[in-house]
Amino acid sequence: MDVFFQQLINGISLGSLYALIAIGYTMVYGVLRLINFAHGDVMMVSTYFAFYFITGFSLFSFVIPEMPWYVSFPVAIALTGVLGFLIEHLAYRPLRTAPRISVLMTAIGVSFLLENLGLVIFGGRPKGFPTPRPFEEIFYIKDISLPSLSLLIPLITLIFLGATFYLVYRTKSGIAMRAISRDIETPQLMGINVNRIISLTFILGSVLAAAGGIMLAMRYPQINPLMGIMPGIKAFVAAVLGGIGSVVGAALGGLTLGLIEILFVAFLPSYAGYRDAIAFFILIFILLFKPTGIIGEKLPD
Known about the structure:
By secondary structure, the protein is mainly alpha-helical. It has a domain at about 20-230. The protein is about 70% helix and about 5% strand. The protein contains 11 helices and 6 strands. The longest helix has about 30 residues, at about 1-30. The N and C termini lie far apart (about 50 Å). About 40% of the residues are buried.
C-alpha cells in the first residue's frame, strides 16, 4: 500500500507539470485554433534563462552576477513571456489571414529554429540545473517519502491555474479572449483590439510554459536544447485528452496522463521502455473514440 501512495504522489507531481504546460497550449488554441508546436521549445528556453541567471554568466564582456533563485525564476518567466510576444508578433501575426496549413508549418519552423538556436548558443552538452535548497528537502510519513518539490509542484500549478481562471473569467481581457475564440471578426467590430488580446494570450501561454519548464528542470535536473520536445508532445496529448480549448480540461488531462504514466512504470516495470509510447496510444485512442476529450465541447465551424 505504501508503494501505491508513493507512486500516487509522484504521479500527481508529474501530472501537475503536464497540466501547467498543457494549459498554455490550450490557451493559444482556444483563441486562435492554432497548435503552437513551439510551445515545448519556449519552455526549454525558459530553463536556460533560469540556469544562467542563477549561476551567473558573461555575454559580450557584460557580466551577469549570480542571482538568488527567488529573483532568477521570476525574471526568467518574465523574459519567456517576452519571447512569446515576439514569436506571435514576428511569426504568427503576419499569417493571421493565411491558410491554416501555412500557420501550422510556421509553428513547426519556429520550433526547429528555437531548438537549433539553442544548440548554437547554449551548446549541445547537457547542463546540470541547480536545485535551490528549499526544493531539496524531503519529508517522511512512515515509509513514504515526500520531496518538497513534489508537494510544491501541485501547489504552484493550482496557483497558476487559479490566476488563469481569474484572468479568463473575471477580467475584460478574459471576456475578449472568450469572444475571439468564438468569432475573431465580430469582436473587432465591437472595438476589441484583437492583436493586443492575442499577444496577451501568447504571453500568458509562454509564462505558464516557463513555470512548468523550470519545475521540470528541478525535478529532472539536467537541461539541453532538445529537452522541450517530449514534454511538449505530452502536454499536447494532455490538452487533447482533457478537451483542447478548455483550461479545466487541460489541467485534468495533464493530471490523468501523469498518473497513468507513473503507475504504468511502477506496476509494470518490465515495460518501462514504453513509457513515452503511452502518450501516443492515449492520443490515438482519444482521437478515434472521443475527439473532443473528456470535457471538451464541439465548437461550430
